[in-house]
């Protein structure tokens, strides 16, 4: 049997925590992933934008919640823009933003839980960050 150095001692805990309102800070750079072979509803390039806001203070301090946005539809762009406006991220009138402006932003928002099935069909629970409830902290 071979020993495999998998780095399993160094990870971020994304297990669900109690639904409530928490204060968050964005410490990690936004991940931007192109969506291959897909265009937006207005003909532009499609991207997934992923944030990992971190809980500030309390029992869950340091825990992170994953939040993914997209730009593929009018609705998805609305939620992303609305969140950015609520936490004070500047945008151009054309809707462009600098991802570095997210770093250090603090906000309060509700966290809920949602159920889903993993790839093997097993039921799982994950936290959902309610960006519509966000207010700058």
Write the topology of this structure.
Elements: E1 20-25, E2 31-39, E3 45-51, E4 54-55, E5 67-70, H1 74-87, E6 106-117, E7 123-136
Antiparallel strand pairs: 1-4, 1-6, 2-3, 3-5, 6-7
Word description of this protein:
By secondary structure, the protein is mainly beta. Strand 6 and strand 7 form a beta hairpin. The model has no long low-confidence stretch (mean pLDDT 92).
Note the main sheet: 4 strands, antiparallel
Number of strands: 7
**Helical content (DSSP H or I, runs of 4+):** 10-25%
**Rg from alpha-carbon coordinates:** 17 Å
Alpha plus pi helix count: 1
**Secondary-structure element order, N to C:** EEEEEHEE
Residue fraction in strands = 35-45%
For the biggest β-sheet, the strand order reads 4-1-6-7
Q: Briefly note the structural class of the backbone.
A: mainly beta
Low-confidence stretches: none
The backbone outline, from C-alpha atoms, is globular
Can you describe this structure in just a few lines?
10% of the residues lie in helices and 39% in strands. The protein has 137 residues and is mainly beta.
